Amino acid sequence: MSFELPKLPYAMDALEPHISKETLEYHYGKHHQTYVNTLNTMIADTEFADLTLEEIILKSSGPMFNNAAQVWNHTFYWESLKPQGGGVATGKIAAAINEKWGSFEAFQKAFDQCAVGTFGAGWAWLVKNADGSIELVSTSNAATPLTTGQTPLLTCDVWEHAYYIDYRNSRPNYLENFWALINWDKVNERFA
After folding, report:
1. If you ran DSSP here, which 8-state letter would residue 146 be given?
2. What's the CA gap between 100 and 141, in Å, rounded?
């Protein structure tokens, strides 16, 4: 089996003005595609060749893990966003956020701190634990909550290639705009 770059759920310019078409051309079209291509080369003629992406993530290490996890993380990130998204959380996730943080604003501040505080390259995640509780997790490089048995609900890619074209080195400005794109329907679907 070989993997293909998953189709974006929207047009390349659909996230503007928050994330530019140029950023998607590089981030999705080049970075994400390179992870897919590299993974396909690495798994060819190995015991990983017929595994699902999730199985490869759970059974591999080193460069193979990094590429598999980055394919998965990026696909998850693109699906976490939508044109004309954002706003305050809705549905059951809104109730869980309010229960955990007291308000959406407090959650947003905590998420921003998690994302801005992620040292170097990585990801900020809202996850559901096995007991149904939710929390924020920061992972470095390609690390993903899949390997810790947590269910990812929402992520923000804080690798510099996610925002450098639009916001240069200002991760906080990128995060301000990230909130206008969140697909709360998808987050609720994952939470269910």
Report:
1. G
2. 27
